[in-house]
Design goal:
Blueprint lengths: L1 H19 L4 H22 L21 H31 L9 H22 L1
Length: 130
């Protein structure tokens, strides 16, 4: 069972990193969400969850489980949800202001035109000099 959980965590982390490094905003949001899920599963697995044992110390109970991983994951879920909502609103605002969804916020078509003009003038000056 541990290898399955470790495999799931590694796949989610790998996909999250891959999507975070994309140039578009929607894959970045999905990548950060996957990374948050991977961290949550990792915290659960490190907390050694036990089923059927109370999380609060009870004198009648024979044993208890540590409530700290559950509290950490609940806090992480709330923070990840807030972060995702903020990123979506920021991406939508950038899309409406800039007209594209590139994470660097540049107008690719204008930049590509400038680069093409720059390269063509540079090539012409090199031809005229030689």
């Amino acid at each position: 069972m541990e290898w399955l959980v470790a495999s799931v965590i590694s796949v989610m982390t790998g996909c999250g990193v891959y999507l975070t490094l994309r140039a578009r905003t929607f894959p970045v949001v999905l990548g950060l969400t996957l990374l948050a899920y991977a961290v949550n599963v990792f915290l659960f697995s490190m907390g050694r969850l036990q089923i059927g044992i109370p999380a609060v110390i009870d004198p009648a109970a024979a044993a208890y489980t540590d409530p700290l991983p559950q509290a950490l994951v609940l806090t992480a879920i709330v923070i990840a949800f807030g972060m995702t909502a903020f990123l979506i609103v920021l991406a939508l605002k950038a899309r409406s202001e800039l007209g594209n969804d590139h994470v660097d916020g540049l107008h690719r078509s204008d930049d590509e035109l400038k680069a093409t003009k720059h390269n063509s003038t540079k090539a012409e000056t090199e031809r005229s000099e030689s």
